[in-house]
């Protein structure tokens, strides 16, 4: 097989993940500017309430977008729908570049959320359906890696470039994705479900780099036979054992809903949105924007580590260990904040906020954050993956909205230290939930995972 071509499978689809990361990371360096007297808006500084809406409206847009892209993925296919995610991201940067009122920023964040919904739903889905079983976890974890790289790009550009120049430059990323991804095929699984077997065979040849040699033709036939049997099995299950399929889909969906809830209630997305402000409030000696850049870089290191070990270590162990250590880091940060609130002299340990949050983001990026989407795409049965994935992703954004919107309110009510302790407890709960309810998926085919979960249901 052409290894260079196979390697680009995850690079090009994840350009849109990179673009989304820049849209998400935009808020942290520029929110302090928007609320300052140097605000680029005609009306001057935005209020605290307006700032929370700017932060949280992305999640509202994503909630609606998830339903739209979930429907589109089944109606028009994975490829066409993934291409469409670039449009709202282009519009987001256009609004930021040329908008002069807070209302335009509201629209911009809604559009960013619309694009985020499609990217979070469709990139893992596309990767799962094109990847070989032995590297599915690795390719799936690149989604979070590219997302985090994009976030860091925004942190750095926001610290060294102007508000408008940042938007002009990042406007090009979704356009590059559109141009490059056009050559990629629809997923073989989707094509077979639409009875387009010849197209599915052509897609598989492109994705695997198969040539006309006898060995490659044999591998192509073997993989096509497996996909045909899988799709035929889905139809048989629907026709012959609809109650069993419904029970299995219901359990997989419930596990997925809990997974995405724990992913957001761990606080990592809120911490990324308010990174600069958190460090300023925590009394860190490091410049807030520089601290955000440090955290973003560490997040990338963790995400890259995940791509290396995700297919070498059991998924369960990796998820549980990362959740446990993330809980420790959040507890340490909360303890520092509590001591400071009690007027204890913490000047000698003012490095703790940066160190703790950096450690949390690193360890969560290794397991807790990327594995949520890898596991979710693996446990949902192919027959309901589009609908189930859209329901779980919509629920993720609903929880994310509540966390991001009301994080400042919770800081006022229970203090930053109280929020860190709550997030710590959630991380512990995530590890426990995974240990009890989620089967191991590493190295297993989609069919084996389905059978394992069906056996759990029967027992």
Automatic annotation (TrEMBL):
The keyword Cell membrane applies. It is found in: Cell membrane. CDD domains: MFS_GLUT6_8_Class3_like. InterPro entries: MFS_dom, MFS_ERD6/Tret1-like, MFS_sugar_transport-like, MFS_trans_sf, MFS_Trehalose_Transporter. The keyword 4Fe-4S does not apply. GO terms for molecular function: sugar transmembrane transporter activity. The chain crosses the membrane at residues 12-31, 51-70, 82-100, 106-127, 139-161, 167-184, 252-272, 292-310, 317-339, 351-375, 387-407, 413-438. It comes from the Eukaryota. One of its GO terms (cellular component) is plasma membrane. Keywords: Cell membrane, Membrane, Sugar transport, Transmembrane, Transmembrane helix, Transport. It is a multi-pass membrane protein. Pfam families: Sugar_tr. Gene3D superfamilies: MFS general substrate transporter like domains. Residues 1-442 form the Major facilitator superfamily (MFS) profile domain. This is Major facilitator superfamily (MFS) profile domain-containing protein.
């Amino acid at each position: 097989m052409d290894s260079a071509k196979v390697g680009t499978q995850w690079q090009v689809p994840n350009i849109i993940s990179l673009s989304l990361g820049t849209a998400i990371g935009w808020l942290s360096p520029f929110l302090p500017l928007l609320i300052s007297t140097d605000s680029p808006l005609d009306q001057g500084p935005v209020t605290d309430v307006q700032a929370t809406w700017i932060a949280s409206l992305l999640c509202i847009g994503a909630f609606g977008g998830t339903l739209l892209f979930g429907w589109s993925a089944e109606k028009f296919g994975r490829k066409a729908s993934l291409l469409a995610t670039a449009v709202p991201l282009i519009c987001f940067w256009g609004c930021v570049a040329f908008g002069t009122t807070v209302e335009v920023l509201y629209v911009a964040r809604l559009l960013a959320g619309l694009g985020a919904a499609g990217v979070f739903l469709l990139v893992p889905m596309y990767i799962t359906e094109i990847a070989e079983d032995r590297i599915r976890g690795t390719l799936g974890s690149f989604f979070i890696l590219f997302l985090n790289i994009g976030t860091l790009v925004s942190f750095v550009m926001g610290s060294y470039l102007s508000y408008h120049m940042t938007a002009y430059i990042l406007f090009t990323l979704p356009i590059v994705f559109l141009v490059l991804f056009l050559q990629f095929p629809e997923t073989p699984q989707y094509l077979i479900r639409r009875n387009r077997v010849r197209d599915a065979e052509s897609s598989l040849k492109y994705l695997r780099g198969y040539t006309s040699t006898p060995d490659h033709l044999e591998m192509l036939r073997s993989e096509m036979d497996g996909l045909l049997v899988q799709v035929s099995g889905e139809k048989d299950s629907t026709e012959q054992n609809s109650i069993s399929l419904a029970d299995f889909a219901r359990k997989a969906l419930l596990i997925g809903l809990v997974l995405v809830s724990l992913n957001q209630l761990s606080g990592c997305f809120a911490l990324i949105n308010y990174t600069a402000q958190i460090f300023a409030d925590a009394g860190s000696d490091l410049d807030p924007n520089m601290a955000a850049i440090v955290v973003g870089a560490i997040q990338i290191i963790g995400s890259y580590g995940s791509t290396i070990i995700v297919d070498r270590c059991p998924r369960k162990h990796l998820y549980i260990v990362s959740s446990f250590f993330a809980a420790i880091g959040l507890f340490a940060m909360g303890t520092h904040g509590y001591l400071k609130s009690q007027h204890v002299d913490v000047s000698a340990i003012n490095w703790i906020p940066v160190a703790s949050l950096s450690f949390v983001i690193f360890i969560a990026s290794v397991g807790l954050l990327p594995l949520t989407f890898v596991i979710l795409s693996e446990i949902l049965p192919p027959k309901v993956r589009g609908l189930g994935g859209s329901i779980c992703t919509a629920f993720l954004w609903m929880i994310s909205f509540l966390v991001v919107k009301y994080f400042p309110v919770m800081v006022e009510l229970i203090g930053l230290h109280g929020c860190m302790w709550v997030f710590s407890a959630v991380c512990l709960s995530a590890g426990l939930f995974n240990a009890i309810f989620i089967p191991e998926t590493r190295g297993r085919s989609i069919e084996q995972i389905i059978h394992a979960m069906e056996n759990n249901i029967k027992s």
